[in-house]
Hints:
Elements: H1 5-13, H2 15-53, E1 60-63, E2 68-74, E3 79-85, E4 88-93, E5 97-102, H3 113-127
Antiparallel strand pairs: 1-2, 1-5, 2-3, 3-4
Amino acid sequence: MIVSPAFAQGFGGAGGGDFITTMLPLVMIFVVFYFLLIRPQQKRAKEQKAKIAAIRRGDRVVTGGGFIGTVAKIVDDNEVLVEIAEGVRVRVVRQTITDVVAKGEPADSDKGEGKSEAKAGDDKAKSEGGLLGRFGRK
């Protein structure tokens, strides 16, 4: 079986136009992936980084372990002191904070304004029978 030289030359001669038509769909797929997947993910990561960099005292945050707490103190650029329960403070690496749930009031307003409202609510709950209110009493 002998392959004729004319038939063999047909494969190499049409390669120039074929390369462009072969690569065009791959380039188009990459462009679609960039605009639908890569670019929005980069934008989201940039917003998350800015949100974590803007953490200040009094913000309610969620850590990577799922703990919700209030930022008690910014230790340095990499660490934050988070109060997860009354009197329980934990040092957390800033990058492990996944979300800022609520922005706290500025540090200047810690004059006890919000604390008096919380105390009044606690006193009312105690007078009504604790957590169950009037249903806890018989």
